[in-house]
TrEMBL record, chains A, B:
Organism domain of life: Archaea
Family statement drawn from the similarity comment of this UniProt entry: Belongs to the peptidase M24B family.
Nucleotide-binding listed as a keyword: no
Stated name of the protein: Peptidase M24
Keywords, in A-Z order: Hydrolase, Metal-binding
Creatinase N-terminal domain span: 16-127
Domain annotation Peptidase M24: ranges: 151-375
InterPro entries in UniProt: Creatin/AminoP/Spt16_N (IPR029149), Creatinase/aminopeptidase-like (IPR036005), Creatinase_N (IPR000587), Pept_M24 (IPR000994), Peptidase_M24B (IPR050659), Peptidase_M24B_aminopep-P_CS (IPR001131)
Entry's Gene Ontology molecular function annotations: hydrolase activity; metal ion binding
Amino acid sequence: MEPDFSPLDEFLGDDFDGYLISADGSDSNQLYLSGFDAPDPYTTLYTPDGIHLLVSTLEYGRAKKESRADTISRLADYDFRDKYTEYGPIAGKAETIAEFLADHDVTSVATPADFPLAIGDALREDGLSVEAETEDVLTKIRAVKTDEEIEHIRDAQESNEAAMRAAEDLIRAAAVADDGTLSYEGETLTSERVREEIEITLLRNGCALDETIVACGADAADPHDRGSGPLRADEAIIVDIFPRDKETKYNGDMTRTFVKGTPTPEIREWYDLTEAAFDAALDAIEAGATGADVHAAVCDVYEDAGENTLRADPTAETGFIHSTGHGVGLDVHELPSVSQADEELEAGHVITIEPGLYDPDIGGVRIEDLVVVTEDGYENLTDYPVELVLE
Amino acid sequence: MEPDFSPLDEFLGDDFDGYLISADGSDSNQLYLSGFDAPDPYTTLYTPDGIHLLVSTLEYGRAKKESRADTISRLADYDFRDKYTEYGPIAGKAETIAEFLADHDVTSVATPADFPLAIGDALREDGLSVEAETEDVLTKIRAVKTDEEIEHIRDAQESNEAAMRAAEDLIRAAAVADDGTLSYEGETLTSERVREEIEITLLRNGCALDETIVACGADAADPHDRGSGPLRADEAIIVDIFPRDKETKYNGDMTRTFVKGTPTPEIREWYDLTEAAFDAALDAIEAGATGADVHAAVCDVYEDAGENTLRADPTAETGFIHSTGHGVGLDVHELPSVSQADEELEAGHVITIEPGLYDPDIGGVRIEDLVVVTEDGYENLTDYPVELVLE
């Protein structure tokens, strides 16, 4: 099942012969367009005729098996080694790419905004027209998922559910020490310990992740704080997990907020309000609505209850101080933005919905699911209870 | 302890007012020059006056605490939001950077080769001189480690030793089934199972990794094969681990080859030869020697014993078919290259030494340690036995 690259054809139109990427497989545009992952930079050319790859001899066999390219060339086909020796690594690479482009009758290319400046300039010196596009044309294509991509994301989210379950079980099983800290099997239960449990569970489910948030009390009031130290009873603990499946490279994303013991009245109120905002956001989702519509649904709930938002006060440091959500795919943050930025939602967009409230004096609360936009609503890719109190 | 940036001053000379990076913290040049890590792109300017950071308001407080910058500016100081709205994300960013550069009296900059083309072009439209340098000036500075960096790498390598120990223990404890496959606690012992043990051990030691090689038999004959399926007795199992410390971001790297049972005579001979090549390489290391000298020491041992090498035959597909080593630091592959490329070794370079032999009919053998180059030799950062047979 191939993505629909027709917006790229439209973009190229009469202005460009092709779209050119030079990056390694950690670049999601490269991974997506080539259907290939390699640790060193390689070159992908899109033309109305198809997708053309230029790789090292080392990667050639694997590229033939794994990539979505219609044609595959080797650096050695263009005597890259000789060019490297004569012109150096960058100019030698550019000379090689220039000959590869000529073979495909390409004299003008558009590139992603982050195309390497040195290669772009060297191609220009070889007489090619090279223009970095700033419309995110490929990133916008990536935002609309195929059924296969949605299944990959659902699988990553299933692993995420297992990890969240492991974290919840650990917090639930904890005892409360006299000083209010949680303890498990005789040791103080810390953010770090819960994070380790999450990471090991994800590993066993074939996922990796760089960061996980397990933040308690005032830590949880900073949406970017990963959390550290002992977890405490009666305080809100935000657990935000965004794993990447190692095989498919697609991400999941989910947040739950837990209290072990009895939440303060403020946390209870915030949680109920956040769940209402969460439901309001979900109700607002459908193809044709905008991210701004969905974001507005959240802001309305919060503002009607007297809470501060960035919409009401762009300098707010407490209250609802981030956007409602973002696209998820090969990148854990990608298009579309579910925020005041006025981006229209399309069927196949996979987005997070993650309202939350923050104040260092109270703590933080956030609820986040991952959903796919459909023609008349959404399908939730997350199957995990929304429940604050762990008895 | 600050790195020695004087080669950057020399490089800038009269040609450039400053060195400019726009990238997120996953870019090692950015991480190194700024001393700061953030998930979204930010801007670092090096001038003979110091290091100057331009970050979002969100990152400002943390940048003040964590970065090595002498001055820190916020995007908001230059009305980035207004520029974003007026000019769009790229041109708006470039306008902002242009004003930031003007504040530092900078009108001409050098950038790394992979500087984003769109921003480079937009800065040029604002009248700035922007040139991507292809001498790897910053990457070469990064190659020479400070004492603090060496300690970070030593720590990562210690975690690596714990992971290698866990892998070795698992293979050692395995039973041999009637069909020659290894089994552990009643289940077939696979590459995947050993890899999981390695990854969990690394997690518990604060390290992450994307890839680990646990490759047996013919799998091990392809240096890029991660390995899969059952491990077998009497065959060579290559275990290559390159973890990254999550806190410091520095890498370790080590390879061992194990046989559970009795190695074939070819594997035994290859192992002894590889150990001899490994020792010869170590003996050749000192400041002032070149990577080519060290690589030649390995090739001499192999060729004298009648084995094929890429030096003797650049199209070789069996024998010693890769370079002897590479630098390790914030990137697991960085300068200097320990290969036919004629790069001089300097005190403070941290390099791998990893000779090996490969043939699909025999399997693969590789031994790898991580060492720091000193004035009169090297210090080995690896403390792990070199031993083939696990009884």
